[in-house]
Amino acid sequence: MLKNHTSFKIGGPADLFIYVNNQENLAALISQIASREIPFFILGNGSNLLVSDDGFNGIVLYLNEDFKSIRLKENSIIECGAGATLARVCVFAMQNNLSGLEFAWGIPGSCGGALFMNAGAYGKDISNVILEASHLTPQGTLQTLTKDNMMLSYRKSLYSENPFIITSLKLKLDRSHHKEIKNTMHQTILKRKSKQPLQFPSAGSVFKRPGGGYFAGALIESAGLKGAKIGGAMVSTKHSGFIVNTGNATAQDVSKLIKLIKEKVYLESGIILECEVKTLGNIKI
Ligand SMILES: Cc1cc2nc3c(=O)[nH]c(=O)nc-3n(C[C@H](O)[C@H](O)[C@H](O)COP(=O)(O)OP(=O)(O)OC[C@H]3O[C@@H](n4cnc5c(N)ncnc54)[C@H](O)[C@@H]3O)c2cc1C
């Protein structure tokens, strides 16, 4: 069940779930899948994902083994596989006295998912550290892009608009001191713990920041929806930008709650909220 692979703990089965261990296997597999026109989906850490209760009619690919590698390339460049978690890369950076990734400490994604989303927090995002990345096209061709060609903007990238499979990333960091980096990471996690409902399954902030100085959480709260519940899905009482799974939420519950939030926020403020969370399978948000 895909619910076991998402931070929301929601989602039915996939037709096939494949752990892919290296680039050669991935290239062979992906060209076969493309030539047969089988729907496929690249799963990162499943931390920004709402999967349909019916699951996914297609193949889910999970980047394992070689794709989890992390190494120091040159003095201040880390090369990592797209399947490596941001958490492990943050620790690796700290252990090598490299600063720049502290903002990402606590973002529960993979490096591939983080680049796809241009994940960020506290005024920084992946665009601040990415140097280049490689991906496979659906035909199995390996390509490399430098940062300037990735079209990185707020929670968006060229990858979120194209069916590419990110395989590895190079991150450019700055030399610093272990103690300083550790301290910043500690402060970051304290901020997260104080503001976010980390004790419940969720997919983080459901909506993008709408711009114009507005915040989704504050708009949702002003619309009177803090703590609003449909089935097992609830607007967090700690951070109204989060929808949490209180135990037995279905994707339908979350979808209905998102619809209600969008409608009420629009009626109250005239602002249209856009979802940051991605979907898989037959589910509308
Ligand atoms: C408690 C909590 C806190 C969070 N805080 C933040 C935060 O502060 N900032 C923030 O930006 N996000 C945050 N998130 C959301 C999430 O962690 C990020 O969006 C993260 O980058 C998603 O990565 P993932 O590997 O989990 O991607 P997934 O959820 O698995 O996938 C997301 C999308 O990326 C695609 N994808 C994943 N890997 C690849 C790949 N190798 N190649 C091509 N496409 C790929 C998937 O197909 C999918 O479309 C939070 C989530 C939670 C649960």
Helix count, DSSP H or I runs of 4 or more residues? 6
Please state the CA-atom Rg, rounded to the nearest Å.
19 Å
CATH architecture group name of the largest domain: 2-Layer Sandwich
- Indicate the structural class: alpha+beta
Spatial gap, N to C terminus: 21 Å
CATH class of the largest domain: Alpha Beta
The average pLDDT score comes to 97
Can you tell me about this structure?
With 285 residues, this protein is an alpha+beta fold. It has 3 domains: 2-65, Uridine Diphospho-n-acetylenolpyruvylglucosamine Reductase, domain 2 (2-Layer Sandwich); 69-193, Uridine Diphospho-n-acetylenolpyruvylglucosamine Reductase, domain 3, CATH 3.30.465; 197-280, UDP-N-acetylenolpyruvoylglucosamine reductase, C-terminal domain (Uridine Diphospho-n-acetylenolpyruvylglucosamine Reductase, domain 1, Alpha-Beta Complex). Helix content is 26%, strand content 27%. It is built from 6 helices and 18 strands. It has a 5-stranded antiparallel beta sheet. β5 (70-74) and β6 (77-81) form a beta hairpin. The longest helix is centred in the C-terminal third of the chain and has 19 residues, at 251-269. The model has no long low-confidence stretch (mean pLDDT 97). Flavin-adenine dinucleotide binds at residues 7, 41-49, 63, 82, 107-110, 112-114, 116-117, 119-121, 159, 165-166, 196, 198, 202-204, 278.
